[in-house]
């Protein structure tokens, strides 16, 4: 087994790799955009970029684009990278495609339809339908009318028959469609001049990206992040991945990143959004070893944000808004000295400025 790496080394490495210690930066040099920045909720992708020093405006600036990609979630990318992103997020194989579409795979297989062929068919209908910005419901209706039964299901919440959700989302990129910023329900539109790349640029490779930003990690961690079979990730494991020991577990990190495992923590306080990449790591027991705290940070529904202090998770937070005023309800996992409270209040002021409101205060749960 390789050299031993402590938990604090791992967390410090990730915080620095994800540039959570950076005060100023640009879209072009923001590392998390290589793997995609999940854009879920009001403190989603743009807030994640703001935390990494990017001066962002809402809705997203034109140099960014929103796609449904990993796990079917909306993610922000650099617009200039979209051809390579489309290649990077495509299923690795038929088995991988079947895993990524969840329960939609069974009826398609029963009908003798390959999952990758089904995604291409859905994409073709979507492309024909979306000739101008089109709300998701209209696209869904067109798909329901055009596709046969194996593609469709009865949805109890909607009390209607329509396409399975994951094929809908995963096919959108194949169709060359992006999400219009700030729309709810989502509006889909064509990506100008889109054509997927034939190969994946190394910088956008998702396995390498996970190791670079969320390492040291195992193939299972990466597979869980992608919703892909472990064997597909193992088949694409980088030749320059170096083995290290983390709390007795064999893990890997890219060889060029080994020296960075010995650096100090990222100082300061950050209010991470609920779906910030730092919280997307699939080794949650390493991030938070207390089951009660883990349950509070990652509930089934209604995730809070996380307080990051010096690169370590130190509590949860939730926004409380009233008109143009914001209060931050903070539940720290320990006593906060006065100097730490001041840092948290500065972090809350930053959040309020991002939201364009006034900070009314930070309420600490005792």
Termini separation: 43 Å
Q: What share of the residues lie within helices?
A: 25-40%
Total beta strand runs: 16
Taken from the alpha-carbon principal axes, the silhouette is globular
Main β-sheet, spatial strand arrangement: 12-13-14-15-16
> Any idea how many domains?
2
Mean pLDDT: 95
Secondary-structure element order, as H and E? EHEHEEHHHHEHEEHEEHHHEEEHHEEEHE
Low-confidence stretches: none
How large a portion of the residues is in β-strands, by DSSP E? 15-25%
Helix vs. strand class: alpha+beta
Rg is: 21 Å
Describe the sheet with the most strands.
5 strands, mixed
The DSSP helix count reads 14
Topology:
Elements lengths: L3 E2 L1 H11 L19 E2 L6 H7 L12 E5 L5 E5 L3 H8 L4 H7 L4 H6 L4 H15 L4 E2 H11 L5 E4 L4 E4 L1 H10 L2 E3 L7 E4 L15 H9 L4 H8 L3 H6 L5 E6 L2 E6 L14 E4 L11 H4 L3 H7 L7 E5 L2 E11 L2 E8 L5 H18 L2 E7 L2
Parallel strand pairs: 1-10, 15-16
Antiparallel strand pairs: 2-4, 3-4, 5-9, 6-7, 8-9, 10-11, 12-13, 13-14, 14-15
Protein described:
The chain has 366 residues and is α+β, with helices and mostly antiparallel strands. It folds into two domains: 176 residues, no CATH class; 96 residues, no CATH class. 35% of the residues lie in helices and 21% in strands. The protein has 14 helices and 16 strands. Strands 12-13-14-15-16 form a five-stranded mixed beta sheet. The longest helix is centred in the C-terminal third of the chain and has 18 residues.
């Amino acid at each position: 087994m390789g050299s031993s790496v402590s938990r604090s080394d791992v967390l410090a490495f990730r915080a620095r790799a994800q540039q959570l210690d950076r005060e100023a930066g640009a879209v072009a040099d923001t590392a998390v955009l290589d793997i995609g920045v999940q854009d879920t909720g009001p403190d989603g992708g743009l807030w994640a970029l703001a935390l990494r020093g990017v001066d962002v405006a809402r809705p997203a600036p034109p140099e960014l684009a929103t796609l449904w990609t990993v796990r079917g979630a909306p993610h922000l990318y650099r617009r200039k990278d979209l051809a390579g992103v489309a290649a990077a997020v495509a299923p690795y194989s038929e088995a991988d495609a079947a895993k990524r579409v969840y329960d939609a795979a069974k009826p398609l297989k029963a009908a003798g339809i390959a999952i990758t062929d089904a995604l291409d068919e859905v994409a073709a209908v979507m492309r024909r339908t979306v000739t101008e910005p089109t709300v998701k419901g209209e696209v869904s209706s067109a798909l329901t009318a055009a596709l046969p039964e194996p593609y469709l299901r009865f949805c109890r919440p909607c009390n209607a028959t329509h396409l399975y959700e994951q094929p809908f989302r995963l096919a959108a990129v194949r169709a060359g469609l992006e999400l219009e910023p700030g729309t709810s329900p989502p509006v889909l539109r064509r990506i100008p001049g889109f054509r997927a790349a034939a190969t994946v640029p190394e910088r956008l490779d998702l396995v390498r990206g996970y190791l670079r930003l969320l390492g040291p990690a195992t193939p299972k961690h990466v597979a869980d992040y992608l919703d892909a079979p472990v064997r597909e990730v193992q088949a694409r494991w980088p030749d320059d991945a170096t083995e290290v020991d983390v709390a007795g577990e064999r893990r890997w990190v890219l060889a060029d990143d080994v020296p960075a495992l010995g650096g100090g923590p990222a100082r300061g306080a950050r209010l991470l959004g609920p779906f910030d990449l730092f919280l997307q790591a699939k080794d949650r027991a390493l991030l938070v070893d207390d089951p009660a705290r883990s349950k509070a940070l990652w509930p089934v529904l209604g995730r809070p944000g996380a307080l990051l202090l010096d690169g370590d998770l130190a509590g949860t937070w939730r926004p409380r808004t009233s008109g143009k005023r914001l209060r931050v309800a903070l539940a720290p996992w320990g006593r906060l000295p006065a100097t730490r409270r001041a840092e948290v209040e500065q972090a809350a002021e930053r959040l309020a400025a991002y939201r364009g409101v006034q900070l009314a205060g930070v309420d600490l749960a005792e």
